[in-house]
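Lay summary. Proteins are chains of building blocks that fold into shapes, and those shapes determine what they do. In this project we predict the shape from the chain. Here is one chain we studied, written as its sequence of building blocks.
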Amino acid sequence: MPHENHPLSREQSLDYYADVRARRSRRKLVIGILVGIVTVVAIAGIAAGLYISHINSKISSNDQDLLSSLKKGAPNEPFYLLLIGADRDEERSEEAGGSEDENFRADTIMLCRIDPKEVKATLISIHRDLYVDLEDGTKGKINAAFSLGGPSGMVRQVSKLAGVDISHYVEIDFDAFMSIVDAVGGVEITLPRAISDPEYTGIDLSAGTHTLDSWDALMLSRARHAYDEYGDGDLYRAANQRAIIASILRKVLASSPQDMISSITTMSSSLTTDMTLDEILALASQFRNFNTDEDMYTGMTPSEPLLIDEIYYEILDEPAWNKIMSRVDEGLPPYESEEDDPTAGVASSTSSHPTATQDKKQEGEDAKKDDEKAKKDAGDLESVDKTGAVAVCGYVDGKASKIASDLSEAGFSSVAYEEDDFVFDKNLVVYGDSAHEAEAEALAKYLGDDFQAVLNDGSFYLMSDIVVRLAM
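And here is the predicted shape, written in a compact code that computers can read:
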């Protein structure tokens, strides 16, 4: 009430009490808003907790044998993770009359070294037909370790093979896992050589870079017969699988936190692991700047095929394998040089060269020199008369079109032909008569030291005044 020494008129009293009521109303409104905010935050927290719990329930393994077989290391130190590509076929299990694990095939086995501190990863594919001593005392293929001992049996088998402790286990159903490819907008894969597998997977891809949808990514990950002409198709299939996984990682790690959680949600139906969602997100945050081209190394168990009792097995080359694992354990690429990789230049891959940083630096210096030479040679092109039409021919993916486009920008009338019957063994610039000799000589110089300008002696078919023939 008003102070007794300051009496108020009736009008002043009305104003005073109206102001008091207004302040009380504002306090109630503020309190109401705060309560509402706290309630929303609480509900959101409960929802987030329920969501995390839901995802964990879908992906987390409760296999106590598996959990006891894993050896957890020190925080933020390098650790090994076993990745298994599953083929859990319920119909096949029922027909075989056994449990799911008893009829399970580990078609894809990868030992992964993860270094959170250096932000590096190494993927080593283990041949599924590798001949090993199994836990039951028999000898057989390593992918049988699952049917004998389940996930924990596979962990123990690979740990023994590699001589390292395994800290985490991830099992994926490859068929379902490929749904993530569409979720991230496709994956980019570069193939050094064209592959075709019409009888088995139907895959048919030219050499070069492709953006694959989930179906093509799955078929590529299965396509081993596409490489029969090169020997053991499993080597090349495994290399493509590693490249697909690297491409998926590249996309997921580059996404926003919200999109990353969405991707993990998509993967959750095809993934089983000992790791929780919190652990996965924490590890992913450490790898936000992960460069799969420079900081991911790949390789495979070195082995040779051997027929034993009418069954083909892969016999481990132990000295070579010990050398590989020694390098991997030190954080080095598995191979000393690219020539040691049996799939190099045939299947897709990530960078696995031990001197990748030095090589890239040298490539940069070489590129700079090439640019300087190209500018000089381009200057030489400017000085010649461009009276002749130029045809660029060769069955090399995209190369003829690129050269023809560059020549057009330089002022030539040029066109590209990339038909499959243009297969040449030499790089030549063939001109029809002496009137175009200077142009041909300038073009050969511009295109590189391995190009030679020659006058047509009647043995070349010329569809233009000058023909650039690109060797395979």
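What the prediction tells us: The chain has a mean pLDDT of 80.
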